[in-house]
Amino acid sequence: MDELTAAGIIDPVLRASYAECKRLNSLHGKTYYLATLLLPKAKRPHVHALYGFARYADEIVDDLASSLSIPEKSALLKSWGDGVLADIRRGTSNDQVGRALVDTVQRFDIPIAHFEAFLRSMTMDLSITQYQTYEDLMEYVYGSAAVIGLQMVPILGATDPAAFAAAEKLGVAFQLANFIRDVSEDLDRGRIYLPLDELQAAGVTPEMLAEKKLTPEIKAALTFQIAKVRRLQAEASAGIKLLDRSSQPCINAASELYCGIVDEVEKVNYEIFAQRATTSTWRRLKVALPAYAKALQAR
User: Fold this and answer.
1) CA 154 to chain centre
2) With contact defined as beta carbons under 8 Å apart, do 80 and 57 qualify?
3) Does the pLDDT at position 162 exceed 60?
4) Which of 43, 90, 100, 153 has the fewest Cβ atoms within 10 Å of its own Cβ atom?
5) pLDDT digits (tens, 9 = 90+) for 32-61
């Protein structure tokens, strides 16, 4: 039985929408997509729908090949985002991605506030390029990452409300790991996601980062950020056990692979300006294969 049929998605138009979300996930979210395959078939399309929504919005904001100006991107994001939010409230959508999202939101009663927060953070990306403190950054990260975890929990299934707080922390850990890996790429976009006061405490200025040369100060700053990722991951780990048994192998694998980005940064000796720290195919398989065996056992 295919995933859509297993999930009870029969309508051809709705199936096409879910298929588009899956295409976006498989194309752009390699690690995320791999982890999704560890879920029972009936859960996977709904995770694809959440990814499709987030990816579409992110593409509007970060498409460097686009000839659109910032005000034009802002207007496009608002128009598309307002349309999807209106569709969620109405309970129906004609948007290719929105149709699957609305169906998922209805099936799992996911609060619309999570999607509002996500779109608010995407809008911040168009106007805010630096964050003075960790607290300032967390306003952005709540919408860009924490709410993704909150959206996922109803689909994954939770045995305890504490699973939601853990999901928030794990979402933040994933985002911070990405920030560490992507310092160079974010500089190309004119952004710095590492809090300026924490950089300053290590003796790093925005100008030093812009030179894209690893220094002892930058290495110290990255070490501090990596410790934060591992602390959040550890704090969230107990919450994974509060999810439905069939969902735990997926989230354990995602946690190891996403937070494992910081391991890869260490392996390249923090040379994030010279190369992009990536998770090897071998490591993906090393994590995924045992997780797949556990997923089959859990089902």
Assistant:
1) 17
2) yes
3) yes
4) 90
5) 888 898 999 999 999 999 999 999 888 888
The angle that helices 147-156 and 162-181 make with each other, rounded to 10 degrees, is: 130
Mean per-residue pLDDT, 137-146? 97
The CA-atom distances, in angstroms, between 140 and each of 61, 147, 244 are: 14, 11, 29
Separation of alpha carbons 280 and 214, rounded Å = 23
| Amino acid (1-letter code) at residue 45 | P
DSSP state of 151: H
Residue type present at position 187: L
**Domain extent for 64:** 1-127
| Pair (91, 226) in one structural domain | no
Mean pLDDT of the 74-93 span: 95
In sequence order, what are the beta bridge partners of 243? 158
What is the chain's alpha carbon radius of gyration, rounded to the nearest angstrom?
Answer: 19
Identify the CATH number of the domain in which residue 294 sits.
1.10.600.10
Q: How far apart are the first and last CA of the chain?
A: 15
Rounded to 5 degrees, φ, ψ at 86 are -65, -40
Give this prediction's pTM: 0.91
pLDDT for the residue numbered 63: 73
Among 209, 193, 206, 183, which residue's Cα sits nearest to residue 275?
183
Q: Are residues 284 and 223 in the same domain?
A: yes
Q: How far apart are CA 77 and CA 61, in angstroms?
A: 8
pLDDT for the residue 65: 56
For the chain, how many structural domains are there in total?
2
- State pLDDT tens for residues 279-298: 777 777 676 666 656 766 76
